[in-house]
Amino acid sequence: MSFQPPRKIILTKEQLEHFQASKVHQEIVSVIQTLNDGVVGVKLTDECIESPGVKAIFEILDRVEQLAKDTPPVDNKASRFGNPAFRTFYDKVAEAAPSLHALLPGLPSDSIPEISVYFGEAWGNRTRIDYGSGMELNFLCWLICLKRLGVVQDDDRVALVIRVFWRYVQVMRVLQSTYWLEPAGSHGVWGLDDYHFLPFLFGSAQLRGHKYIKPRSVHDSDIVDEYSKHYMYFACIRFINSVKTASLRWHSPMLDDISAVKTWDKVNSGMIKMYLVEVLGKLPVMQHFLFGSILAWDGPMPPPREEISQDGAHWGHAHAHPKDLGGAGQREVGWGDCCGIPVPSVFAAAEAEKNKQPGARLTGPAIRAVPFD
Q1: What is the pLDDT of residue 253?
Q2: Phi, psi (rounded to 5 degrees) for 262
Q3: In terms of CB atoms within 10 Å, which end of the chain has fewer, N or C?
Q4: Which helix (DSSP H) or strand (DSSP E) does residue 7 occupy?
Q5: Which tens digit of pLDDT belongs to each residue from 221-258?
Q6: Is 372 helix (H, G, I), strand (E, B) or coil?
Q7: Which domains does the chain have, with CATH numbers?
């Protein structure tokens, strides 16, 4: 197999529509569904098979967290936005990527330059110092590549969620709180969580069929505290409550809406539908998707772009244009452009609140009905 560095290709609505009908899209959805179904009724604290590949990934995540701990934030008290030290951390990860990937059993060495790109992008955007569901998708793509290359197998599906993916989320919480990563566009502010989507999807699968805990239980702080040890969904709710004031109804209206759904089965099926529409179906997210030889593009190529380097943070953006020429403007993209109005980190907002300083409050009305019925 001839490996090649992944690159951005999706620029237009037509290309996005082609992607949605492609084999790569089908594979991503299939992997999500397989991982989702594998953890129905499974707790984070349950025992599971951990293959050598899973253990190696876990070690890599530990090392990434250590790189963050070895790279403290710079004094940036004048700003409530991302800390510039994140760029130093990002560069350290890039430098360490070849040696980290060498830990993975059976990984072809010539594949490392390709899959390292997904790995690097999974931690956030170096230029904008932000993080959102698109970066989270890069981590999933990295795991898909590892599966394609034989590092992990079908039997690893439980461990990939409750061990590997959950460890990734924990490392991301360290990065988010250390470097005050901004939510990636207004999508983050009015979404499920300022940063993540998949923990809610997999977390609702864990709770499917639970006899006693209901979706409305997210409003009971005692239940949230107790079951956050066992279920991603409650762990994420607990995290949100720890950094935001007021009730869930005000700072996380979509999660409040979802809490009215009767069963976890409906919540879980709704989460999958929502992911297809709001992540895999949104141009501001998917214009950053990377195609290489493993996750290959088989559609029409984008027109040449010379004015902005493809490696730049703004390459291919479908920003709002006066006539919406060739892309999606703000009125079309639902939750907003991926790098429109900067939004302060939730940690910065919490710090401002704690110190009684003026700061951005992540509150507001619900934005739309959610597909949970």
Answers
A1: 85
A2: -70, -40
A3: C
A4: strand 7-8
A5: 999 999 999 999 999 999 988 877 667 767 788 898 99
A6: coil
A7: 7-292+342-354 (1.20.120.1150)
